[in-house]
Here is the input.
Amino acid sequence: MNGSSDNRVIELAIRYGFLALLLGLVVFFSFAANGFAGPRSAVFVFQSVAITGILALGVTCTLVVGGFDLSIGSVATSALMLSAYCMVILELPAVVAVLACLAMGALVGLVNGLLIVKFKVPDLLATLGMMFLLIGLQRIPTQGNSIATGMSLGDGVVAEGTFSPAFLWLGRNRFDFFLERLIPVPVIIFLIVAVAVWVFLALTRHGRLMYAIGSNERAAALVGTNVARYKIVAYMISGVLASVGGILLAARLGRGDIASGNNLLLDSVAAALIGFAVLGAARPNAFGTAIGALFVGILLQGLTMMNAPYYTQDFVKGVVLVAALVFTFYLSSRSRGTGR
Here is the structure.
């Protein structure tokens, strides 16, 4: 009887422990950081969560098939720079800039997938190599400079293009909520992407096949699943979503800031991996990733409002990530052992 009660407590801790931690974090910062509980603070949290969350959902798709994408941060920054280059230097319409960024993300994902599937390069090495390639490539056209209207292009030539108002709307416009303009467009886009990824992975045959590949690739192949195709598609989804994040970041900044995406990789990976602990899933999932992104956003906003040194934030994120994963997998294994 006592063993059964202990097992029940462990199961409740696995399922709801992380959500309780998230709630506790909100309560703590509400008292410890002046202004944290206000609507303006919530706007900053959700706005930062939106871009990180979209990238994290792309990582989740690669985790589902047993892979991992380290190139998402560099893809997002490349999309940011490419959109700025198209509009400011080439003076192309916003629609062309957006389509070029999405095509670039899909192409990068395709190359990653082919390297992993066809050339048998380990996913971490393939995407790491792509990350370095893109970091170098995005700096070559401007010689490492950020892109902004009026910048010098050499020989007395000045960039005269500007960011389209319609493009900037994607990153800066807000919708009314209780008579205040509080909900940024990127948050709406993030919610749409999160629901779409959740429906695709959890409710469609293709999503279930991707989970089957991640669980046992050989077994999935034996029942007729085109493993190579699904893996390539997963990396293409990751690349496109990373490009979406880069587009939204460019629209928010209004310039091609070469250093603006430095923390996107770490924050997105943290959100995707923290998602393993949400509701005791112990596997990649879209809902958990969205909650993980919210957790990272709340944590960083709270630390910032408490004037915590910036160099401590990555340490705190690492501690939380390790604790969440150890908590989830250790208790899960203990629960299974008790059940036997």
